[in-house]
Design a protein that fits this description.
This protein is α/β, with parallel strands linked by helices. It has helices at residues 12-24, 39-45, 51-59, 83-93, 116-119, 164-179, 195-208, 221-230, 242-255, 294-306, 311-326, 344-354; strands spanning 2-8, 31-34, 62-67, 97-103, 123-129, 141-144, 154-157, 184-189, 215-220, 237-240, 263-267, 273-277, 329-330, 340-341. It binds 3-isopropylmalic acid and magnesium ion (MG). 3-isopropylmalic acid is lined by residues 83, 86-87, 246.
């Protein structure tokens, strides 16, 4: 089992170090190989996704990824910015299926900005298509406007597009996932305005015929954003495109009050996967030893389950995380009165001990 370790920037290095400790404490044999990515790779090699990092990622069974990005790279040309590393990995490895669970842990119900009764027991899975849509659609660029409201003015444009097979495969992923949960899929679109999402809705409806045991409904993205804060528990699996999924998954993660707790997985059709916390590089707290490593540790658990076929080890890690929460240990992001504040390293070590 070969795992590429790509810590990246900001708190990435600190949190990935704890997840690696957890992996090493299991009685399993892994080949772990580390490489720079993001701003760290730009500093060292002049590119956010150096060839050596990309080929390591391609040759691995799974990638454990920290986070990329820092304000200090905002002035660079777009192809050199840290974010291009994660976009490049998604594209070159074909990681089209992004799983973003939003789970409200029992002990953390009060960390949510919503009323506890709205989020207690919340367990939503957002499935975001990750290699298409306006993120990757061509053509895109800047030019002198040939027409429109201000012909001759400078303009910029991107292209939103989805093909039938791209929609079909992500719809299947969503229906399969729903079968293992509460058998409900909400497909989020903007079919009332956009051609792309009329096709989306049509194709999801067709694919649904193969999954009669799963309930499907359709929701416009604006309404979905509203329903997520109004009555989040009525969702089970949400499936949507790249752009809407980016936005809704941030919204959903915050319902749980603890973005520092949420893992994510991005898979291709060979079950090769990239595993990363749902949160970013948090440069404001980098190097202070206070970041919450649990999202990354839980991402390692997802990795064992989805890409490395080690479900028991995944269960053990998840149980260990619940145990340290029950012991009252909290990093500052999830700390409340009556609990014990710990740093990144203490939290990682507590998980190892619980294991
Ligand atoms: C995410 C992030 C990325 C995205 C950025 C860093 C390119 O926001 O994974 O949600 O927009 O997909
Ligand atoms: Mg995002």
């Amino acid at each position: 089992m070969k795992i590429a370790i790509l810590p990246g920037d900001g708190i990435g290095t600190e949190i990935v170090a704890e997840a690696v400790k957890v992996l090493k404490s299991l009685d399993l044999k892994f080949e772990l190989e580390e490489a720079p990515v993001g701003g760290a790779a730009y500093d060292a090699h002049g590119h956010p996704l150096p060839d050596a990092t990309l080929s390591l990622a391609k040759s691995a069974d799974a990638i454990l990824f920290g986070a990329v990005g820092d304000w200090k790279y905002d002035q660079l040309d777009r192809p050199l910015r840290p974010e291009q590393a994660i976009l490049g990995l998604r594209k070159h490895l074909g990681l089209f299926a992004n799983f973003r669970p939003a789970i409200c842990y029992e002990q953390l119900t009060h960390a949510s900005s919503l009323k506890p009764e709205l989020v207690a027991g919340l367990d939503i899975l957002i499935i975001r298509e990750l290699t298409g849509d306006i993120y990757f659609g061509q053509p895109r660029g800047r030019r002198v406007a040939p027409d429109g409201h201000f012909p001759g003015a400078e303009e910029a444009f991107d292209t939103m597009r989805y093909s039938r097979p791209e929609i079909e495969r992500i719809a299947r992923v969503a229906f399969e996932a729903a079968r293992k949960r509460h058998k409900r899929v909400t497909s989020v679109d903007k079919a009332n305005v956009l051609e792309t999402f009329q096709l989306w809705k049509d194709v999801v409806t067709e694919v649904h015929k193969d999954y009669p045991d799963v309930q499907l409904d359709h929701m416009y993205v604006d309404n979905a954003a509203m329903q997520l804060v109004k009555e989040p528990k009525k969702f089970d699996v949400i499936v949507t495109g790249n752009m809407f999924g980016d936005i809704l998954s941030d919204e959903a993660s915050m319902l749980t009050g603890s973005i520092g707790m949420l893992p994510s997985a991005s898979l291709n059709d060979k079950k090769q996967g990239l595993y990363e916390p749902s949160h970013g590089s948090a440069p404001d707290i980098a190097g202070k030893g206070v970041a919450n490593p649990l999202a990354t540790i839980l991402s390692a658990a997802m990795m064992l389950r989805f890409s490395l076929n080690q479900p028991e080890a995944a269960d053990r890690i998840e149980t260990a995380v619940k145990k340290v929460l029950a012991q009252g240990l909290r990093t500052p992001d999830i700390h409340s009165d009556g609990t014990t504040k710990v740093g990144t390293r203490e939290m990682g070590e507590a998980v190892v001990n619980a294991l």
